[in-house]
Amino acid sequence: MSEEIDLKQSFKAYDIRGVVGENLNAEAIEAIGAAFVDVLSLSGKDVLVGGDMRPSSGEFAQAFARGATYRGANIIMLGLISTDELYFASGKLNAAGVVFTASHNPAQYNGIKMSKAGARPISSATGLFDIRDLAQQYLDEGLPVSGDVPQGSISERDVLADYAAYLRELVDLSSMRQLKIVVDAGNGMGGLTTPAVLGDTVLPGLPLEIVPLYFELDGTFPNHPANPLEPENLKDLQAAVLEHGADLGLAFDGDADRCFVIDERGLPLSPSAITALVAVREIARVQAAGEQSPVIIHNLITSKAVPEFVTKSGGTPVMTRVGHSFIKAEMATQGAVFGGEHSAHYYFRDFYNADTGMLAAMHVLAALGEQQLPLSELGAEYEPYAATGEINSEVEDKAGATARVVAHFEGQPVDVLTMDGTTISASDGSWWFNLRPSNTEPFLRFNGEGRTAEIIEPIRDAVLAIVRETNVAN
């Protein structure tokens, strides 16, 4: 079967993802484990291995361990973990590691998210494709003859309690007012991490009443896909928040590294608003410790409210491209205290520059619980503009469609930025939009924002009409 697996189909720019049995199988994973150790020179060193609740994750973790120990690594099996648990363990233990997960993808998928020691990211630019190419060689030709390196060992370690305790050190929730929250784990790893961090399964209880939705770990996702980015998948949470009169709702994706927030009215608080809220809190915290002008990272699709709040709070906003490898690299380069993306990835310097939705959720809980306003009023301050959300258009000639849009705005009072797609913004600051081609799908992604919905909606409609080659009046 090995000759049927082409690893170029599953290795993406930032991680590995494919259909089990079609793009990935145990033999391929074993080869990837061996290549991971050889490319990163990990023979004789510890390597962390964990997985989510997908049916194939346990088998794949064992296969990876076989390949990695064959090439001399000492494997520490972490068992069932969320992706941010891997980042915690990688940072805390200063060891490279992997977690088997396909995040929010459907049940037939699995994949691998990888980390160098210290939770440093691995991407196509920092070794991921080298691992792919060597793994393909091992898969096609067989692993190297045993004997050039001593066989590694396998041990086990549970990091859940340490992970929960560490997060509680970073945000103290013990003295806030009593809150009722609904948490939708989507049958993903949030069903394990939420009771540990916010509940009382491993640590003393907090002033939180938790109403659980779909906490049973089930990688077949029997209730709804574990993808909170799709509004359809938030409906159960929204209904439960209203039914229970909860103060807020939290929704995690399958590997629980992203978190989405619903207010007491059942309405979502945008990831940009969360980014601004957490940024203000983190700026105040480090300023109190004497840090001047702390840096906050945001990608170019977040609301312009984010850099405005950062600047107003005495921080320094830095804009980057979309994608966790860019954000993490910039976090390290800038010494940034926090970073946020429109996709609900939140990065913290105190969390080894890695992303964790749980820590962002804790900041929201703390901000809400430290005062008496409902979340809708507290959050409204951080959402002063009207956003379109991300709208995808299936386009074969993405460059041609973008060029038509740029031509449409020629001669108008606009500014054009070509970082990560094309961003066109009104010179008076009243609106902006970004067109960004997907690297993996035939989509051109539109994101826009205006001072009001009345300003941005005609711009949105005109641009989408041009992109989709519909006649539009100038």
Q: Return Rg in Å.
A: 23 Å
Poorly predicted regions: none
Which whole number gives the mean pLDDT?
A: 95
Any idea how many domains? 4
CATH topology of the largest domain: Alpha-D-Glucose-1,6-Bisphosphate, Chain A, domain 3
Instruction: Write down the oligomeric state.
Output: single chain
Helix content: 25-40%
N-C termini distance? 57 Å
Percent of sequence in beta strands: 15-25%
Under the CATH scheme, which architecture of the largest domain would be assigned? 3-Layer(aba) Sandwich
GO molecular function, one term: phosphomannomutase activity
Enzyme class: isomerase
Domain Alpha-D-phosphohexomutase C-terminal: 390-464
EC number: 5.4.2.8
Can you give a write-up of this model?
By secondary structure, the protein is of the alpha/beta class. It folds into 4 domains: 157 residues, Alpha-D-Glucose-1,6-Bisphosphate, subunit A, domain 3 (Alpha-D-Glucose-1,6-Bisphosphate, Chain A, domain 3); 107 residues, Alpha-D-Glucose-1,6-Bisphosphate, Chain A, domain 3, CATH 3.40.120.10; 110 residues, Alpha-D-Glucose-1,6-Bisphosphate, subunit A, domain 3 (Alpha-D-Glucose-1,6-Bisphosphate, Chain A, domain 3); 82 residues, Alpha-D-phosphohexomutase, C-terminal domain (TATA-Binding Protein, 2-Layer Sandwich). The protein has 14 helices and 23 strands. Helix 1 crosses helix 2, helix 8 runs parallel beside helix 9 and helix 8 crosses helix 11. The chain is globular and about 70 Å long. It is an enzyme of class 5 (isomerase). Its cofactor is Mg(2+). GO terms for molecular function: phosphomannomutase activity.
